[in-house]
Amino acid sequence: MEESISKSEKAYHSNPVIRILSWIDRWIIEVFEKFILSFGLLALSAIVFGVVIARYFLGFSPDWSDELPRFMVVWITFIGMSYCVRQGSHVKIDLFLNKMHGKVKKYINVTILSICFLFFVYLTYLGYNLTMAVFAANQMSVSLDISLGYVYMAIPIGCFLTAKNFLHLLIKNILSKEVIADLSERGIK
Predict the structure, then answer these.
(1) pTM > 0.85: yes or no
(2) Which parts of the sequence belong to the Tripartite ATP-independent periplasmic transporters DctQ component domain (predicted)?
(3) What are residue 140's DSSP bridge partners?
(4) At what angle do helices 7-14 and 16-24 cross, to 10 degrees?
(5) Which of 18, 43, 44, 129 is deepest in the core (most CB within 10 A)?
């Protein structure tokens, strides 16, 4: 760690609860995000390639060839949203933020992170209610014959992970002397 670490940052690092939560974040949640994204993209590519080859050469297309890739894209999108926040590569308009300096820049960044966190907490709530309504209605996919609730489940899970990553960034920015854009950046891990 750098010598410029403040007392609050040192207290953060020495707190056993924070250390456990950081370990869980790095070795369970981040691994889950990477697995879903890498396996999902690889499987999606293989399925779409296989279906195109089957259609072209065999004149055959499985019934599930439209639904499964679509459902996979939904999961990849919502988990990818969380991973983008982790990496600091989510869409943001920082034209004005880059022109500011010092405490004003830090306060605005903390405010933006707070709003994003609250927004994704609310989306998690809405997504959970929507998913439970779909499960309760027993809506099934046409060709795969699975509950659409499993597809909709990507919404609350992805929004919850995104909210968690925004909260983590918020805490890092509050305790750090600088503005931190991603969870792997200098400062508090």
Answers:
(1) yes
(2) 45-171
(3) 147
(4) 70
(5) 44
